[in-house]
Amino acid sequence: MRAPVRPLALALSLTVGLLAGCGPAADDAKPNGSTPPAALTPSAPAKRTLTPHDPPQWFDVRGKVPLPEAATKGRTNLAGQVRGGGEDLPVLLHEARAFVVSPTGVQVVDLADGRTVGEEAASGQVLRQDSDGFILPPVLAGSEVLVPFLLTVPASGTHTAGAMVELVAVSTAPPYKATGRTTVKLPEWALNSRTVQAAVVGAENGTAVVTVTGGDDAVSYGIDTASHSVRWTQPGLEAIQVGAGMAVGLLHVEPLTSVPLGVDLVSGTEKWRGGKTYAAIMNGAGPGTVRVAGPQVGDKGDQLLDVTSGKTRATMPPGLRAADCTYDRAATLVCTRGFAVVAVDAATGTLLWSLKDGDQGRTPPTVTTVWHGRVYGRGAGGPVVLDARTGADMPTKPEAAPLLVTEYAGLVLDDNHLFSYPAGG
């Protein structure tokens, strides 16, 4: 990449400054103490702007800006890695802004210069002071960002203390303030669970779904985003995805045993139910698809299900049940298993490519994130970008391996701190 070109205005201002240093003192140069001529008035530095590239091919390390500590607090391990990966960071990227959530509030950060341009706080006392590592990312719903907070319900009269979830809708426009709040009292287990966490699963057509989990316990709520009221409650449901008029997740029926479940998004009415699955894992695999994997013997232990009917759309290639697969928000599932990287078509379950150590003289990268047809990670020679559909190395050196990506920036972990790097293409 070319080095940045120094603006002409800066060069001229330096020239003017040098010439002014040879003349009379500054006070003497002002006739009758008046304001100096406009030509001699220093101009404010131009505000940096970010240019979108969808998808980015590289990231400008010279333009990095820091994000608040809340972005990684409680998330990194001793090896300096983010537990759970970038998808679980309490951060939502929207255009050139980052919404960074902590147990007590949300900060809005300008990714161009790192300024905090807005803040909003939860309306009560947090349920757990040490819950930084259990905060999940907020969700975009139209012109609002939906942020969940776990709060305490103080004891009052004969009523004992409890726990509640507060859903705060924050505007995506300045000054980034709350446009509505919804509070829901939680079951008793939420107050006593050491691993309780809340997540906004998604929102569609005026209904948002919030799920709260803790150990083998779960509950999900459908919330009207206009009236800020609760439309339905599903005890035991750990919702995973919202789409096609449905909320889909795992219904906890026995210890370590769940059934896939789909409910109507507006009413919460059960539409379909799958079979019992021990140690089931469900992830989003596209707008109308979820992946359900379990340790069953045979190919049926790893399937792509239609969210509207619960029927199998496709069976995943064998050997991937223990692999973590991430949807690239385009058309591909990218899976990592041991030292291998595998790509699968999200619609058909067809194996697109796999890369194992030593294949054709290549070494699989450590995948950090996938987005819009690109696989980002760290390879033998440094950061790399691969084509998600073919597995081929992209020709441009990316300079960084981001944990989260949008068309404007990539978020990169450096010495346990998160930085935003401008995107390039």
Notes on the structure:
The protein is mainly beta. The protein has a domain at 51-89 and 322-425: Thrombin, subunit H, CATH 2.40.10. Helix content is 4%, strand content 45%. The chain has two helices and 33 strands. It has helices spanning 8-21, 188-192, and strands at 58-59, 65-66, 91-94, 97-101, 105-110, 116-121, 139-141, 144-153, 162-171, 178-185, 197-204, 207-214, 217-224, 229-235, 237-243, 246-254, 257-264, 270-273, 277-278, 281-284, 289-293, 302-306, 312-315, 324-327, 332-337, 340-345, 351-355, 366-371, 374-379, 382-387, 404-405, 409-414, 417-424. Strands 1, 2, 31, 32 and 33 form a five-stranded antiparallel β-sheet that branches. 40% of the residues are buried. This is Pyrroloquinoline-quinone binding quinoprotein. Residues 27-58 are annotated as: Disordered. InterPro entries: Quinoprotein_ADH-like_sf, WD40/YVTN_repeat-like_dom_sf.
